[in-house]
Write a structure and sequence with these properties.
It is a single chain. The chain is α/β, with parallel strands linked by helices. Helices cover 52% and strands 14% of the residues. The chain has helices spanning 2-10, 27-71, 87-95, 113-116, 122-125, 147-150, 156-175, 189-201, 211-216, 220-234, 249-262, 285-299, and strands at residues 17-20, 23-26, 74-81, 103-106, 134-138, 178-186, 241-245, 282-284. The strands form two sheets. A six-stranded mixed sheet has the order 4-5-3-6-7-8, with helices on both faces. Strand 1 and strand 2 form a beta hairpin. Helix 2 (27-71) runs parallel beside helix 11 and helix 3 packs across helix 11 (249-262). The longest helix has 45 residues, at 27-71. 24% of the residues are buried.
């Protein structure tokens, strides 16, 4: 009995255990349990606040969609950027309340052997919108300028042919009445690493990790150089790039919605909302090249 008393004396109050519903639990565990519940509650409240912030703009997206239906217009939105930059999450928020009959999300896998023998754009064109429809590409033909180029999934000639021809291809799209929006989601190296780490430990996100994702950090500079070439050579007046800084996912989602809403003069717009773009989050493709040129001139390399 005295030994037992000595054992209890040696323990701090936080380490001592209590019996609750037939189970022993330490004070430390009780405290952690309470903290976890607080964290969960705090995150839930934050998520609700974020949802409320987005809802007025999601309602505007429904009006935009209805306008496209009424005028038989077609819209294509490209979502490009590094792995874990927030493309998929933004697409889900943009389409959350839309009429499912009038939009499609396209995320193509590796080309089949048959597709490899076809005209490069053919596999994308078959998914293009009909009148009154929006098609959102989760990665697009620009895969050739980024992933395929960095990992040598295409030849140098195939890459060069794409870079020479894509502006003409997009000019034809615009001339024939398709509204084309090109969004590039830009995340920092440290933030990408954090998101990859969360994917590794979260069973609900582990499916997002691919072999290529695992090499993204190692090939960071290669992707940055390729991004620079892509934006510089394919940014145009008829099909401009809009760069969205996406370290803060919520702000990136909201600003991306504003970019889409500002692309069309649709009826019934709620003028009480703020449609102005944050200069800290949204940057034109031309301005992004200026920033990257300045980075290289100052430090001898691109930052991101």
């Amino acid at each position: 009995m005295s030994d037992k008393k000595e054992e209890i004396k040696e323990k701090s109050i936080e380490e001592q255990t209590f019996e609750i519903d037939g189970q022993e639990i330490s004070l430390n565990e009780l405290i952690e349990s309470f903290k976890t519940k607080q964290d969960f509650t705090s995150k839930a409240k934050q998520k609700r606040r974020e949802q409320q912030e987005l809802k007025p703009y999601q309602a505007e997206l429904i009006k935009l969609q209805r306008h496209l239906e009424d005028t038989d217009k077609k819209m294509i939105i490209l979502f490009e950027g590094r792995d874990a930059a927030g493309k998929g999450g933004t697409i889900r928020r943009v389409t959350r309340y839309m009429n499912e009959k009038h939009y499609r999300i396209v995320a193509l896998g590796k080309p089949t052997e048959e597709q490899k023998t076809q005209w490069f754009y053919q596999k994308y064109i078959q998914h293009f919108p009909r009148g009154g429809e929006i098609v959102l590409f989760d990665r697009s033909w620009y895969n050739r300028a980024m992933v395929e180029s960095v990992f040598d999934f295409c030849t140098q000639k195939e890459y060069e042919d794409f870079m020479k021809g894509v502006k003409g291809f997009e000019k034809d799209l615009s001339r024939q009445g398709t509204i084309l929006i090109k969004l590039y989601f830009s995340v920092t190296k440290d933030e990408q690493a954090l998101r990859f780490e969360r994917r590794k430990t979260d069973p609900l996100r582990q499916w997002k990790l691919s072999e290529i994702d695992m090499q993204a950090q190692e090939r960071w500079d290669d992707f940055t150089a390729t991004k620079y070439k892509m934006i510089k050579q394919t940014h145009s007046h008829t099909a401009p790039w809009t760069v969205v800084r996406s370290n803060d996912k919520q702000k990136a989602r909201l600003e991306a919605m504003k970019v889409i809403l500002n692309s069309v003069d649709y009826e019934g717009r709620d003028e009480s909302l703020d449609y102005s773009l944050s200069s800290e989050i949204v940057i034109s493709g031309a301005r992004e090249i200026e920033i990257m040129d300045a980075q290289r001139a100052k430090s001898g390399k691109f930052i991101g």
